[in-house]
Design a protein that fits this description.
By secondary structure, the protein is of the alpha/beta class. The chain is built from six helices and seven strands, in the order ααβαβαβαβαβββ. It has a single domain, classed as Vaccinia Virus protein VP39 (Rossmann fold, 3-Layer(aba) Sandwich).
């Protein structure tokens, strides 16, 4: 299913294979939430990171996953009981995530291949995250050693928190936070 989805629309998929256990472990280590908060995963694919988060103790009812591909969203609903699976475009998070959770998100995990998108579309994703999780920033994983997002263009501070050579392809976990003081270029 994962490979078929990649063939059908490679720009929506960051890789031809699901995330490895090594990458999932690194994402889990960089995920936090208070008891009254949720974790939001964008671009959940077939759910390896979601399953790792659940195995690490995130209650299913506190895990919200957004997936744009209908077949993958249906798969997630079947395989992640109790988890909130939202089929839709993550650029519309303020509409997709129930308003009662806006501002109560511990971590937003971004697995969407933002580097493959035009800068205006990258900005739409960043703004959508900021609307539902203001000031929290987000970890983003992708397959580059350097930042997949242009920091100054998007007024972001970014730092590579993890490198996973055991993933195919090798992956980095970057943490981004908005820095309004930086002028845009």
């Amino acid at each position: 299913m994962f490979f078929r989805s990649w063939l059908a629309n490679p720009l929506r998929m960051g890789s031809v294979v699901p995330s490895s256990a090594a990458l999932c472990s690194r994402i889990v280590r960089h995920t936090a939430r208070a008891d009254d908060e949720i974790v939001l995963e964008l671009g959940a694919g077939t759910g390896p990171i979601s399953r790792a988060l659940l195995a690490a103790g995130i209650p299913a009812d506190r895990l919200f996953v957004v997936e744009i591909e209908p077949t993958m969203a249906a798969h997630l609903r079947r395989t992640l009981p109790g988890t909130h699976v939202i089929e839709g475009d993550a650029r519309e998070l303020d509409r997709l995530v129930p308003e009662c959770w806006h501002g109560r998100i511990g971590t937003v995990i971004c697995g969407i291949p933002l580097v493959l998108l035009p800068r205006a579309e990258q900005r739409r994703f960043i703004d959508a995250i900021e609307r539902v999780a203001p000031g929290r920033g987000f970890p983003h994983f992708f397959y580059c050693a350097t930042s997949p997002l242009p920091l100054r263009t998007h007024r972001l501070a970014g730092r590579r928190e993890a490198w996973t050579p055991l993933n195919f392809p090798p992956a980095s976990v970057w943490r981004y936070t908005s820095v309004q003081a930086l002028p845009a270029r």
